[in-house]
Amino acid sequence: MAAPESGDGNNGAARMVTLISSDNTRFEVEAAAASLSQTLQLTILDGGGGGGDGIPLPNVDSATLSKVLEYCIKHAPAAANGGAPNATAVDRAELERFDNEFVNIDQSVLYSLIMAAHNLEIEGLQSLVAKKVADMIKGKSPMEIRRTLGFPDPTPEEQAEMNAHMLEYGWAYE
Amino acid sequence: MEPESSSLRQCRPRLHDGKPPPTEGEETGNWAELPRDALLSVLHRLEILDIIFGVGPVCHSWRRVTQEEPELWRRIDMLRLAKLEPRRYSQFQALAHSIARRSAGQCESFWAMGFPDYYFTVFSHGVRAPLLKSLRLICCNMFSFSLKEAIPKFPQLEELEFSLHTDMFNDLYEVCAAAAEACPLLKTLRLNKQRYHCNSRVEDKEAMEIAKMHGLRSLQLFGNSLGNDGLAAILDGCPQLEYLDVRHCFSIRMDRDNMHNSRCQGMEGATNAQRAPTLESMGWSSVPTDILLSILAKINAFDILMGAGLACRSWLHAAKIPELWRSVNMSFYFNKLVGKKRDDVLCAMAREAIDRSHGHLEVFVGSGFVHNDLLAYLGERLDDRAMVGEESLGIASMIELRLLQIGGNDMTNKGLVAILDNCPHLEFLDICHCVNIKIDDSLRAKLVCISKLRLPGHED
Q1: Where are the beta strands (DSSP E) in chain A?
Q2: What angle do CA B9, B15, B19 make, to 5 degrees?
Q3: From the CA of B189, how many Å to the nearest CA of chain A?
Q4: Range 90-149 of A in CB contact (< 8 A) with B
Q5: CATH for A16-81+88-138, options being 3.30.70.100, 3.40.50.300, 3.30.559.10, 3.30.710.10
Q6: Mean pLDDT across the stretch B116-131?
Q7: Predicted ipTM of the assembly
């Protein structure tokens, strides 16, 4: 795992924890980064995840977990500063640039990410992905949204229900 | 647009202005002599904690009424208990005894958060509560044997919750066993743990007892250590199960085509109750409701009504949740749409948004298309909510609109007054460029409470 670019450095060697994805890949990461997850934070405070133990995350696969950890590692220093009131504008701009690039990915990856962020309760990541998806569906018709996000074809029943609503809101399709 | 007679709805005559209706006692100031029925009509709208700590000690006659009316003790909801100040917390013992004494066997539901074991024992010993249908104990510091002994006294139990107990013990399965045996009507069970213990081994004891509750419809087991065998036993033993929440039950291995999946498919769990810890076979169209809400909250009313809210059935359901409609900003669209029907379309959208808010609307912004009849509609909807509020909750006014920005519209004083009368919490009102509004003394009088005002003629 990549080391964080700017650790706080005053704790000597930072504490590491091991996370185990659903396909049994082990990820070693600083406790501070993993603690961005509210779910993991409790376990880590209890001393879990150290040594050979590792914390199993049975509903996150390794591809998604590595992406999640990339986010956590980048955001951990700012979070450690308590939302970074004294962060420089440069730092903030750099984080923003990172965020924008980070979510510039396929919808299926976004889906795995938001589910993982939800399960692991990583607030910043949840809202980042939600914002991205919101931007993707803004100004689109229902059909365009279905295509953009790869919905399965509607069952005839569902299609009928949607059509009924479209008629009900006929004004929307003048 | 011609105002049609049908759309000029008259506002319902107001019974009062946000104050409780005057009662006979008010004349003399002698509330203690309030007729029993009148007092009861008030007491029935209070929570049990207010009755015990507030009303009871007021005076002798009120105390007697609270003691003699078993109806008041039928539904004991003390979920707020844990938030009480410590001075009152120390009155627990008295509390448990009064509940035990007064509910006189009539108690139908007992809900508590942060209720110590000893006092629950007092309650369950003293009370013969053969009618108890719902028992919910959350964050209660309990011993399982107290519960195990108490549960057989409640043969009518339909709902049982025992969640987030601070003292984790291993014999919870005995409580499940007692409930499975003594409560044949049980439909809802919640046994949530704080979290899944990462060192947990598979532990199916609780699941095996739950599997004997054959009438179960709804089951929530957050963070339980049950494994595949336990889950299979539950699915076999509870054929009527409609809702299953096994989030954070990480001992369950979900194979793509094993029997749980096929059995769970037919289950009508809410979308945010993940049926099992698996990501397969899901997609954006079945994303959990709370995630979907976080996305929809970031797009505007127009896009929800015209696009995302019609993408599929589950998105349509989510798009109707009132939470999304607290703030409705329709100022952007006036210039986007063209044609002579534009005002009608925007008004129809505004009405839909108002309907979906179910009276929770706090902010409304619109310009160019807002007429008297839309304002009347808005006022009336808010009023409906207030009426419902009075009926069911005993709260005089629940009207929440705080910000109304409707500059550049054609409405007149009449439309404006219709809404001002219904919005006691309005803090911000913008009606600049509204040429048909005439600021006269009666209107001015209605505007005094609004802290931020932008009136016609004050344009920058």
Answers
A1: 16-20, 26-30, 55-56
A2: 130
A3: 23
A4: 107, 111-112, 114-115, 118, 126-127, 130-131, 133-134, 137-142, 144-146, 149
A5: 3.30.710.10
A6: 68
A7: 0.80
